[in-house]
Structures are given as C-alpha cells and as structure tokens.
Amino acid sequence: MEVKIIQASETFPVRIEVLRKGIPLPYEFPGDFDENTTHFGLFISDKLVSVATVLVSSHAYFEGHQFQLRGMATLSKYQGKGIGSVLLKHIIEFVKTNKAEVLWFNARIKALRFYQKLGFEIIGPEFDILHVGGHYVMYKKF
Ligand SMILES: CC(C)(COP(=O)(O)OP(=O)(O)OC[C@H]1O[C@@H](n2cnc3c(N)ncnc32)[C@H](O)[C@@H]1OP(=O)(O)O)[C@@H](O)C(=O)NCCC(=O)NCCS
Question: How far is it, in rounded angstroms, from Cα 105 to Cα 91?
C-alpha cells in the first residue's frame, strides 16, 4: 500500500466510478489544476484504489490558514478495509506540515462515521447538495 501525489486527471476515473454514478454533476472540480491544489492516490500493487484532493480554500465558519478536502473516494471493492483511513491520515499529516489551522469539507451523511472515527467534527446544520443529498460541514483544527 503506497500513498502518492498524483495528477488531477488520474483522480477522474475513480471520482466518476464512486462519486458520480447516476449523479449529473461534473467530476472535475474548480481549482483542480491550481498550483496550490494537491491530489493524492493510494495504490495497491500499482492499482489506484482511493483518491482525495486538498485545496487551499476558506470557509466562513473558520479563521486562519484553511485547506478543503474534496473528492474522497475508495473503489467499492476496496471499501471498508481501512484504505480510506490510511489515505486521510496521510492527508492530515500533509496539511499539518503545510501549516494548516483547519481542514474542512462537505461530508455526505453516509460517510459521517468514517470521518468521525478520524476525529473530525460536524459544524452547522445539514444542507442539501442537488443530486447528491444531505451533507454536513466537518472539520478538524490544528
Ligand atoms: C467513505 C469512504 C471514502 C471511506 O473509505 P474506505 O476506504 O471505505 O474507508 P475505511 O475502510 O478506512 O473505513 C473506515 C470506516 O468508514 C466507514 N465505512 C467504510 N465503508 C463505508 C461505506 N461503504 N459507506 C459508509 N461508511 C463506510 C465505516 O465506519 C468504517 O469503519 P469500520 O472499519 O468500523 O467499519 C468510502 O467508503 C467511499 O468512497 N464511499 C463512497 C463515496 C463517499 O461517500 N465518499 C465521501 C464523500 S464525502
């Protein structure tokens, strides 16, 4: 198992498969190609099985230097095996090294437990993202 920095385009097939099935929203995110954006991939025997993206982006809930997590996805066959946790722990270390004061994101309700187990907390009310459903803002402060 190895976590590497990857290109935006490498995340797209995994995003499409895991996050955009039956969901008519773009798989490319604003900021994907910004120089401050970093894409991570977890590989098992050279197969990319989990991806996530970190952008420098601020939310009105927070102050200070903030990063946003987007596009966290593990291929369905590989879910529930601890892979997403390994990738997200790596990303937490990355943002800490880059002087983050907050890491935040919009979490799908189905994934709340995954993030809570890694110490992220909910802030604010539930809100809806069209075609995807209920979300909460989650965050961790450093
Ligand atoms: C959420 C997700 C990224 C987690 O990645 P993963 O590789 O499955 O993560 P882990 O195996 O480290 O999971 C740890 C915890 O997440 C939860 N979890 C795992 N698979 C899950 C799934 N398919 N759906 C919901 N929660 C799940 C469980 O609480 C699990 O804890 P457990 O080990 O006690 O069962 C992955 O399940 C996924 O891609 N889901 C679909 C897309 C999605 O919802 N992405 C998040 C958008 S905000």
Answer: 13
